[in-house]
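Readers of this paper often ask what the protein records in our data store actually look like. Such a record has a labelled line for the sequence and another for the backbone structure tokens. Nothing more is needed to write down the fold, since each code stands for a local backbone conformation. The remainder of this section carries one protein's record, kept here as part of the documentation.
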Amino acid sequence: MFADNDPRLSQLLEGIVRLASGDLNSRIEVSPARDELDAIIMGTNLLAEDLQIIYEELEQRVEVRTKLLHEAHLEMQKMAMQDPLTGLANRSALLTALKSAQSDGARDTLSPVILLLDLDAFKSINDTQGHTAGDKVLITVAERIRGAVRATDVVARLGGDEFAIVMPATGADQAAVVGQRILAALNEPIELPDRSIRCGASVGLSVGDTGQGPEEMLMQADVAMYASKAEGLNRLHIFEPGLLLVRRLRSQLLDDLRLALKGEGLVLNYQPVVELATGRVEGVEALIRWNHPSRGRIMPDEFIPLAEEAGLISELGRWVLTTAVEQLRRWVEDDAVDSSFSVRINISATDLQSLQFIEDVREVLKETGVRPEQVVLELTEMAIVKGNDLDRYSLGGLRGLGVGIEIDDFGTGYSSISYLRRLPVDRVKVDRSLIVGLGTDPSQPALVAAVLQLVRACGLEAVWEGVETAEQAEHLRNLGCLSAQGYFFSKPLPADDIPALVAGAFPTVNKRP
């Protein structure tokens, strides 16, 4: 065996201790004897080499995994701060950039500025062209905004069709120049697969002030943006304190509208549609009004856009549908109208995008017992002619219920006679702009006759809207037009006044004063 005083034993022991402590590079010297002890030493060295290889492989794996984890963490941070559709910053990133710009602005002579931008026509694009087209528009808008701003500016998409730009150390004048450049870029046509569209924007501008937080500055830009929308399309408005009062009034009006939908205040008036040859009232159009408890009567052009912005338009539409059809049932039960009498109800493009709307119509018809053909749904020309597949499916579903479908505001710029031949519509309501010159413009009767011929060539009939004089009514009757509506016959009336109006009818139009 081994001699107790063999120095190699102590060398072996020291080597094992070094290996155990983690020094895998340590090796024990082999003697020239090459005996059994040297064999043990060589085995220990081989074990150390194996351990070193294993350890190096583990270190490499740990390094690779650590790098992957770090990259994943960076990607998650990027995703958390980036809008997935456009690649722009998101709201969190915007607020971070704005906070940083405000901190830097405290040491600079120029203040940071935020521009808040909302597209003017995006909702109608989504409603009529579909969400794929809507996404393409948003991506194009993002690219154009990035191309119009400075390299130091941060562009973000806050959600939907709302964008924001943080401009560090800028000031109002320079920011307004950039804002106008953005508006000009967005006013250029955007090419979609089947058409070219323009999608302008409304911009609000807010200049940072000492002690302001990012959210307050963003709120001020939002207030200014709504002021620009009120002034018209494709505009920029700079925030001023007086706008806060307008914002509070708007917010209060919205709260009041929500309460009105749940309680009282909303009413329907009804304007007669008259058969020109006989003066018979063949139906009415239901028109919503709002009797506000403190502001008095508010007309639809003021609160309908508010309902659309707040997402209340479908709820408002259901209220009109239910109220109008129930009123028609009461007139029928009281023998105030006959079975051919109809009520026309305006519906929005949003309704066509909801399959629930078909069920709402079905349910109202079932609960009231009103004959489907006595209910006519009116849609704007743009919504019905330029609708997407879901719109056409909804129209087919509504037609399957037996209700009438009528195009409103026909002739306002989106007419497509070829579409009229294929869509499930019964009538068109010709916009008032096409009869304004009747009686004063010698060329107007020929235009009306041409429109009537085109409509009838599609197998439809027309209701002529906006008749205000006896001369207009007589011209329409002489041209062979069947039905008309307007202040010449009657303004919109409360429901209680309609039975007497129907019973009395109108004299034939050529005998009216």
